[in-house]
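Hi there,

I know you've been waiting on this one. I reran it after we fixed the sequence typo, so this is the corrected version. Both the input and the resulting structure follow.
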Amino acid sequence: MRRAIFFLLAVSQAWAHTVQGRDADFLKTVSGPYPGPFVYLGAKHMVTGYDHLLFLVGVIFFLYRMRDVATYVTCFAIGHSVTLLTGVLSGIHVNPYLVDALIGVSVIYKAFDNLDGFKTLLGWQPNTKLAVLGFGLIHGFGLATKLQDFKLSGNGLVVNMVSFNVGVELGQLVALSIILMVMIPWRRTAGFLRQADFANVALMTAGFALMGYQLAGYWLGPAA
């Protein structure tokens, strides 16, 4: 039993998208405004944040016009910017395991939506823009919890957090560009629509795995 608990905790930590190494050392000791490094940290966190990227893939999966892509990505950006800045600057703290579990739910939701699950099972379609905005708020709290762990100095905090958020947006643009470079040629293939169902089932499975591991961390790990 102890081995099983240890295994679940280890896996949960492996799935937790955290700041480590020299980046963590920097955040522990930084005092004063450092816009450049915080832009870098924000961009790096988004580009390597598989949980955010999975949701982003789901959001743009069936968006063919760049205007629509821009609209939905803007909704997501507004959402996570509000809660990232509010969470850190006002000291609003939420349990990181539960937030990351809800981020897993966001991936499940979007994959289910892409499979026409709501229309098929419920006969109606939720407002997708509001859903993306709402889940963006949750993703922003996920970003905030990673920074709150370091009890950042109040000296230069506003500048640093705005810079971090700018970096997140830049990282999102880079990640989005890479995703579209893959998606656009794939959509032009004859088998795309057939493969799309499998891809979204895989996306939903990843969301369930992320949610499950984070809930395991919440129930079995130390209080955050």
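Quick highlight: The CA atoms of residues 112 and 168 lie 26 Å apart.

Best,
R. S.
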